[in-house]
C-alpha cells in the first residue's frame, strides 16, 4: 500500500447524525470529492488548495466551522496530552469521513519558506491520523519541504494528481492556478480582511465594522492580536474573540496585515532564530507592534493550552513587553474547557486598563528610551567572548557533571558543580519559567539559579538546530535570568557547522590556560572514553540489579564504579577501572534460574538520562526484578546525532528505518527515535515499553499517538508517563507496579514455560547479547531477539 493510498479502518459512526452539514464547496454531481479539514493550515492555504483540486476536476468539501460535536469527537479520538488544535483536527477529519468524501487531503507540511519548519504536530500529522480510529478514507499526504527547492512543490503536486488519477501536465497547470489564487488571498489579508468561517468570503477587520459610536462612548482602541492563524481565526476555539473585541469597541489588527519584511527584520534582535514558522511570525510581529505604540494600544497573544512552541513565544513576548516599559500585553490561553465568562472578564479588564492609562489614571505608560527600530536587512551582531577566569557551571545530566568538571577545570576555569536536581531545584525553575515550559527547561533553570547562588558567573550548555525547543533553552534562560537581575554570561556550544567561528570563539574563551590544540584534543578524547565506559557499566548494572540475590549490592558497586572512572587520570587508568568494575558486577550473586522481565525505555533524552527527573525509575524497576534498557545513552546519542547536518537529519538509521511504517518524518527531539526504538524492542522480544516524556513535549506527544498503534500491532504493552512539576513519586510508583504486574500476567499467559536464562559471563558472552556493540561505546546498536 503506497503512502498516498493508505486506508484507515472504519470502526463505526461517531454519532447518530452528521457532525456538520455545512462546508460543502462546489460539489459536482458524479465527481470525486476531496475533504479539507477546517483546522490548522486551512486558514493559511485553503483558497489555494481548493483552486488546485478544482482544476484537477474534483469537488472540494470542507468540514465546516468548528462546533461542539466536532470538538467532542476530536477529544475522544486523540490522546489527552494533545493540544486542542490537534484535537480539533481529528474532529474535523471525522466530520469529513462521515460526509463520505473520497479523499482526505492531509499534507505533511515541513517547510514553506526555505528556512523555518512547522511545529512537530504538522510534521507527524498524517501518521497521527493513521494511528487513530478516525474512519475509512483514502489519505493524500504529499511531503512539502521548500528547503529542497521549488521543484518540491511541483513534485508534491504531481504526486497528488496521480493519487486522484490525473496527469502530470494537469498537475502543473493546477499548481499555477493555486499560486495565483494564493497571491490574491495574501493581498486580501494584507488589505485588512480576515479569514471567515470556511467559505470563500472574508470579513472585515477594520474599524468600519464596529458598532456606530454613541456620543458618550469610549474611543475605539486598536489592539494587535498575534498567534497562530488556526487559533486566532477559529471563532469557536477562541470563543469569538473578534466579536468580543468589537463589543468592547476595540479593533483587532492581526499579523496577517503585515508584510513579512516588516517583521522579519526583527530576527536580528533575537540571539537565535526561532525554529517554527508560525512562532517566528507571532513573536516578531509582536516585537513590531511593541516598538510602534503609535500603531496599536496593546498586544494580545492568543495561545492554546499546552502548546510547546508557544511556551517559548509567549515568554519572549512578555519579556519584550517589560523591556518596553510594561507595554500593555495580555496572553489568552484557550482549550476545550475554556469558558466564555473568563475570557470576557479578562478582555474587559485589559481594555479598561488601557483606557485608564490613556486618560492618565495610572500616570500613563512609564517612559523608556526610544526603541531602536531595526533597519531592513539588519544582521544579528556577532557576540564577542573574552578569555578570563570564569566561575563556570553547566547542566546536571546523568553521569556527565564530573566529566565536564574535569575538562573545564583543566582548561583553567573555576567550576561551580551543579547540584543534583531536587524538588527545591524544580521549584526555583518553575517560578521563573514559562507556565508550559517542559520539565527539562524548568530543572535546568533551577539548577542555574542554585549555581549562581554559589557564585557562578558563566553557564556553558549545548545548543541545537531544532525543531525541538531544547535548542532555544540557552537563549530563553539567559533572557529570564537577566530579567530577574542576574548578571550571568551564557555560552551556547552549537554544532560546529552552524557557526564554526562562534564555536571556536567560545572554546577559546574557556581555554584560560591557553592549552595547545593537541592537548585540548587529548583532554576531550579522555573525557569521551570516560563517557563510553560509564555508559557501558551503567547498562550492565541494570541487568545485574534485576537478578541480584542481595538487594542493593549492585547499586553500591555502581557508585564505586563511577568514583573509580572519575578518578582515572589517563586512558590506562580508565581501562584498569573498567576491567575491575566489570569483574565486580559479574561477581554479584544472582538468583538461580530467575528470568527478569525486560522493559525498553524510550522518550526525551533529559528525562531518560537524568535519574533525578524520573524518580530513579530504572533503579526502582531493577529493585522490582525488572531489567531495563534505555534507547538513549550519552555515548550512543553522541555517535548517532548529526552535528553537521540539517534539523531534519540524524544518523540513527536503525531507529529511523524501524519507525518508517509508523512515523515517517524526523519531527524534532527524539519523537521518531522513540517510535523506532519501540519497534526494535518489540522485535527483540522485550516484555514491554515505557515512554518517558516531559509534559507539553510536542515530539513525544506525536510519538505517543503513534506508539499506541505500535503497541496494538506489535502486541507489546506500552506505558506512557508524562512528567512535570506536579508528578508525585507515589503515583508514579503505583503506575509502574501495575504495569509490571500486567507484564508478569501476560508472560504467564503466553509463555508459561519461559526458559531460564543463565547469568552470562561478561568475558564469554559479551556485555549484552541484545546490544552487541555496547562494549565499543554504542549502546544504540540494533537489538537482536534471544530467549
Question: How are the elements arranged and paired?
Answer:
Elements: E1 6-7, E2 24-25, E3 33-36, H1 42-55, E4 59-62, H2 68-77, H3 84-99, E5 103-105, E6 108-111, H4 120-123, H5 125-131, E7 138-140, E8 143-145, H6 151-163, H7 168-190, E9 193-195, E10 202-204, E11 221-227, H8 229-232, H9 241-247, E12 250-254, H10 260-264, H11 277-291, E13 298-304, H12 308-323, E14 329-334, H13 340-358, E15 391-393, H14 401-410, E16 414-415, H15 423-432, H16 439-453, E17 458-462, H17 473-483, E18 489-493, H18 500-510, H19 517-547, H20 553-567, H21 571-586, E19 597-603, H22 605-609, H23 617-623, E20 626-630, H24 634-640, H25 653-659, H26 671-683, E21 688-694, H27 698-714, E22 718-723, H28 729-750, H29 762-765
Parallel strand pairs: 3-4, 3-5, 5-7, 6-8, 11-12, 11-13, 13-14, 15-16, 15-17, 17-18, 19-20, 19-21, 21-22
Antiparallel strand pairs: 1-7, 2-4, 9-10
